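Posted in: Structural Biology > Protein-Ligand Complexes

Title: Requesting predicted complex, zinc ion in pocket

I'd be grateful if someone could produce the 3D structure tokens for the following input. Sequence and ligand are given below.
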Amino acid sequence: MKQCINCMTRLPRREVTEVAWCALCAPCLSAVSDQMKVLHDRPGGAAVQILQCGWCGVTRSCGAGSRTRCLVCLDDRSVPDPAVQKIAGRLELDGTWRENSELIAATTVKIRLAKYFQPGWTVLATDVHGLPWTGFRWLTKSHGTWGRNDETGEVQQLKHSRGEENLLYLVRYGKVLKFGRGNAERVGGHVAQGAVPVLVLSAARQDVTVARDRLKRLHRTEMVSQRTPVDLFAVLPDGLDVTDRYSRS
Ligand SMILES: [Zn+2]
Ligand SMILES: [Zn+2]
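-- Reply #1 --
Done. Output follows.
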């Protein structure tokens, strides 16, 4: 037996279809049959498509020829995932379970996209294993993060931006705070995804690493409720406040 990840119905294996790394029953499959539109087909000959959700506009990458669906949108047949509801509770989200799930998924996608921000490229789409359904266990399987070269228009798979990670940052994505360490491009990537920089501190890389680890031990995850006091100066007292460099005017 298999279980449909969207409505949790248990079915014989031959009655489920693989969609976006997971198994869906026939009614759930048809609920999203016209959801995704192809934006880029096999860029550079890669066995990948970049698609866009017609419901919310979020993009994703997917293996060419595979069935997929939006990383964010649930549907009328979806049932709540207790693990995601637990995250929503911790983040003190006040929407319906579906709104909360979609907000968590959308924020997770933005945080992933921010990692790939780099000058000269427009980040187009990524693929996060487990979305739009499951909490926590963001697994490592992915069809990659893709971007377009601003000069040549070429679409290709991107690598994480590299560079000295000497910044400890706190940014706000709507109702959610996210802290982390990274370089200037990482913070710029969050801002490009719509985050507001709350505080950005610059320090020696080792000190930033230690400070980030202390914050992670305190708060357990890097995504916390907007009411959580996240005190960057407490863990990095010698940090230099460079927030102004990242605030949009
Ligand atoms: Zn189903
Ligand atoms: Zn969508």
